[in-house]
Amino acid sequence: MAEAPAVLDGHPYAAFLDRVEKPARYTGGEVGSVVKDWGSVEATVCLAFPDVYDIGMSHLGFKILYKLLNDDPRTLAERCYAPWKDVEAELRARNIPLVSLESKRKLRDFDVVGFSLQFELTYTNILLMLDLGGVPLRSSDRGEDDPLVIAGGPVATHPEPVSAFIDAVVIGDGEEKATQVALTWARLKKAGVPRRERLATLAKLGAVYVPSLYRTEVDPETGFQIVQAPIEKGLPLPIDRALVDLDKYPFPAVSPTGGPEAIFDRVSIEIARGCTEGCRFCQAGMIYRPVRERDPEQVVNTVLEAVRASGNDEVSLTALSTADVSCISPLIKKVADKLAKERVSMSVSSLRAYGLEPDLLDELKRVRATGLTFAPEAGTQRMRDVVNKNVTEEQLLETAERIFSRGWDRMKLYSMIGLPTEEDADVAGIVEMGARTAGVGRKIGKKNVEVTVSVSTHVPKPHTPFQWAAMDTLGEVARKQDLLRQTVRNYRNVKLKTHGADASVLEGIFARGDRSLCDVLERAYRNGARFDSWDDRLRLDVWEEAFTHFGTDRSRFLNTIPVTARLPWDHIDVGLEEGFLAREYRKALQNRLSPPCGKVAGTFVHHTNVEDAVGDQRRLVCYDCGVACDMTQMRSERVDFLRRLGANKRLPLITDAPVAAPTVEAPVDGEVDEAIEQAPAPVKKAPPVKGRGGFLYRIRFEKTGAMALLGHLDVVRELPRVFRRVGERMVYTKGFHPKPDMIFSPALSLGVASLDEYADVRLERALEPAEIASLVERMNAASPSGLRFRGAALLGSEDAAISRVIRGARYVLAFARSALVAPPGQTAEEMLASACRAAMAAPSLQIRREIEGIGKVVDVRKYLLSAEVGGAEARAALDRAGLLGDLVTLDVFVEITGSGAAKSSEIAAVICGEGGVAPAHRAIRLELFGGAADARFSPLDLAAVKSALGRERSASSAASASALASADAE
Predict the structure, then answer these.
(1) Per the domain annotation, does 260 fall within a domain?
(2) Which whole number is the average pLDDT over 192-204?
(3) By residue range, what is the domain housing residue 811?
(4) Does an H or E element contain 80, and which?
(5) Is the model's pLDDT at 940 over the cut of 50?
(6) I want to staple 153 with a disulfide (CB 3.0 to 4.6 A). Which of 117, 141, 361, 641 is the partner?
(7) What was the pLDDT predicted at 335?
């Protein structure tokens, strides 16, 4: 099959990117990305995330390491994400390696390939990325020149099931170790030190586990393969975790932003690491001790800088339990005050279901639109005591009353089934608790209260008190889920969400697995296992075959483990005192609580002002977990944080009447008018359009290269980001979910470049002519690769919206000469000319268009105004769009009507395709055209069209045409 011209010249995936799902996942070029000279650094690191771009772009650890390594002149970091199935198929068919986003280098070219281990069900994706990146899967098969394959993250604390594939594992915080490991490895490699000796040197750095340097034996009590001893002298056992002072490593404000929409498409800022609660099922709460809070002033500054740098319109403050951060109320108030001025909303993750004081809820009300999410984890008090969730139902209902009385009408409650000692009454209690929560809202007069109960299956995790507990069988999980569904039928204000248990069982096996699972993992991968955390991609048959092939007894990983047994992760020391987890497990089986650490005994209230904090000298609780915490320092630090935030006195509680709170409050008309009065004199007299405010500008831009591979909605999201980056405030629509007031020219198909796009945007102030030119320059400097602004012009109240102005478009269709088979005696140009004449003479050119499986017949001839072989102007368009090669072009004019238009691919199909399929080609939208309000273009009157193009080439009103045309001339 002939290839189309490359839409991204020079990219190794150029020939097929526009044919795959979300091609911009693989192009890079986002704002905030860093491309460094490989010759200027000592060590090169590829940060490899074993899931798709959309998920990996939101990962905080990736952002931290990316900036840390790139800020150091000795190192560079680039990114790579797991390719989706369509790209994997293309890479294998073409024998092309997986490459990084920044320099397009294959993984095997890097000194270090570092994987983030967030979830056990991404293990097969690690093998996928190594395989496609040209790196031998097994550590034992790697040669002297192969990269170091290293891993870190929460799952790195129990890495035996992937130990055959990972050269080294960083345990704990990675900030200090990332640079140290990369430089050590690269320097030793350059000095000619053998690979094995390099690995031994890394193992002696501390907090680095090298599996190949440790011997295992089978424990007769359980059959587990246990790490017994190092095979060389001087290697540590156990391997201690790394622990850093967060103030030495400020959270990065700048990181790559843009591309296809990420799962969490917002600025996320880590405000604390660790947790005080001590939930017995929570691995993160155990392995990230002690609690370390970031300097709140640093957090505020980071938030503001991140908003300016990224252009995002939402900020999320994240921690394992944000409500337990000592200065959370004044911190949220200060951040909310700053963000309200910037029209940026804020969310707060991981709220617990008690202790949310009214002042905190009032601040959240200003920046949240919908409901809040809490995690009571269990439906009865007995089960909450078992898991050490220090919350009573009374506290949950009190919080619900405060929430519903402040305008929210939705809450989400997260719980689990399959916890130790669970009974059917505990399972049904999850839904019943949701019903009582909804009842609070109805009691205070809320009519549309809705509580969603989301229920997952408990997976016992290493380094938690429940690491010895059995996991429910699939049959038992199904029975409990059915009990939940039966119970929820009795309550109309409660919604139930459950999650498939098949993946949870597989997660449980690999969470508590040993080295014997490495063979199972590789076999499953080679037989097609990929993206196992995605329900529609999990291949249970492949896993069943792999377990059966090796005779793996899965029950030993899922059943109850004796507390006295040695475990496959015992050689990893996360800092907990020996015997602590066992004591907590026994207390769980007796329904006994342990108090949360770092708090005043018997209370869950944290202080919101310096006055109360200084006056409260009650003893703080110590959990006695073995992690060294300085309670005196913790108390003084909290006072200092409150003082820095200006929380010096008690503030009166805000008791507003119930009101629905939008994510971003739209300005009232008076605020807009005041902004206009303070702004410089407008370019022309153009009063704000009644009821909407601000000043309307027509922005002209082009999108080529990587931007042509971005979907229309992603482009729509990008434009407000650009305005925020340059500090230009937009007017927002009214309503419950205000959005930037924008209208775009007609959307393009994915992969179609354009040299003539428009957007009508409403700004809060009028700009002088010099300011407009400066704005365009600044926007170009703040835009991702492939997005270029050509001009801007102020519109008046008499000007029609861009969607009403545009009447047609001009396309250049480019075909590789080799893709066109001309009849004997004809050139490709002659063949296309003949096809164009035939198409224009045809009364009808019908083609089937299919959208989401629904087809309809489109008559392309109805929209086709002109088609001819392209000349010099078409060739110039190819150059501007970056399309190279021996190309033959068509120059096509099409009409755009209120009822629709023809796609460029459909035009190519009806003119020179076969069976309704267009030959391989690329399309460029060369220009859009419009006319006077009373003008209408006849599909046959090409002369009138070209005349109109001469008069109104810019597709804008006469008033703004000169400004945009002059910008184009420049």
Answers:
(1) no
(2) 97
(3) 805-969
(4) strand 75-81
(5) no
(6) 117
(7) 85
Res. 935: pLDDT tops 50:
no
Q: Please tell me which residue, 820 or 628, carries the higher pLDDT value.
A: 820
Is 440 in contact with 496 (CB distance < 8 Å)? no
CATH code at position 218: 3.40.50.280
Q: Is the pLDDT of residue 672 over 80?
A: no
DSSP string for residues in 355-398? ---HHHHHHHHHH--S-EEEEEESSSHHHHHHTT----HHHHHH
Token pair 């339990």: residue: 321
- DSSP states along 418-477: S-TT--HHHHHHHHHHHHHHHHHHHHTT-SS-EEEEEEEE----TTSGGGGSPPPPHHHH
In a domain, 848, yes or no: yes
Count CB neighbours of 915 within 10 A.
Answer: 5
Whether residue 736 is found in the same domain as residue 835: no
Tell whether 62 and 163 lie within a shared domain: yes
**CATH number for the domain that contains residue 676:** 3.30.70.580
Would you state the structure tokens that stand for residue 671, as one six-digit string?
Answer: 């605020």
Residue 630 and residue 686 in one domain: no
Structural domain includes residue 685: yes
Per-residue pLDDT at 276: 79
Q: Are residues 147 and 28 part of one domain? A: yes
- Residues 144, 108 contacting (CB under 8 angstroms): no
pLDDT tens string 584-620:
999 999 999 887 775 554 444 455 555 555 555 555 5
d(CA 16, CA 750): 12
Q: What is the rounded distance in angstroms from the CA atom of residue 513 to the CA atom of residue 162?
A: 10
Closest CA to 278 of 598, 572, 607: 598
Tell me the mean pLDDT in the region 785-806. 88
pLDDT at 676: 23
CA dihedral 117, 118, 123, 129 (to 10 degrees): -70
Nearest C-alpha neighbor of 50 from the set 84, 18, 27, 17? 84
Beta pairing class for 112-116 and 148-152:
parallel
What's the pTM value of the predicted model, to 2 decimals? 0.86
Instruction: Tell me the CA distances in angstroms from 327 to 272, 613, 623, 732, 890, one per residue in order.
Output: 11, 10, 21, 32, 64
Mean pLDDT (whole number) for 893-919: 87
Distance CA 393, CA 93 (A): 58
Total number of domains constituting the chain: 4
The residue with greater pLDDT, 940 or 396, is 396
Same domain, 791 and 861: no
Written as six digits, the tokens of 343 are 């029209």
For the chain, the C-alpha Rg in angstroms (whole number) is 31
For the chain, the average pLDDT equals 84
Q: For residues 120 and 41, state if they share a domain.
A: yes
Cα–chain center distance at 760: 28
792 and 775 Cβ atoms separated by less than 8 Å: yes
Count of H-run helices and E-run strands, the chain: 30, 29
Within a domain: residue 408?
no
Q: What is the average per-residue pLDDT within 187-201?
A: 97
Is residue 914 classed exposed, middle or buried when 0-12, 13-18 and 19+ CB atoms within 10 A define those classes?
Answer: exposed
- Are the CB atoms for 56 and 336 separated by under 8 Å? no
| Nearest-angstrom CA–CA distance, 4 and 13 | 12
Question: Would you call 945 helix, strand, or coil by DSSP?
Answer: helix
* Of the candidates 949, 904, 951, 898, the residue with the CA atom closest to the CA atom of residue 927: 949
819 and 869 belong to one structural domain: yes
Whether residues 197 and 73 fall in one domain: yes
Over residues 758-784, mean pLDDT: 93
Burial 346-370 (b: 16+ CB within 10 A, else e): bbbebbbbbbbbebbbbbbbbbbbb
pLDDT (tens digit, 9 = 90+) per residue, 144-181? Answer: 999 999 999 999 999 999 999 999 999 999 999 999 99
CA separation for the pair 599, 656 (Å, rounded): 30
In three-state secondary structure terms, 410 is strand
What contacts 476, CB < 8 A, 6 or more positions away?
418
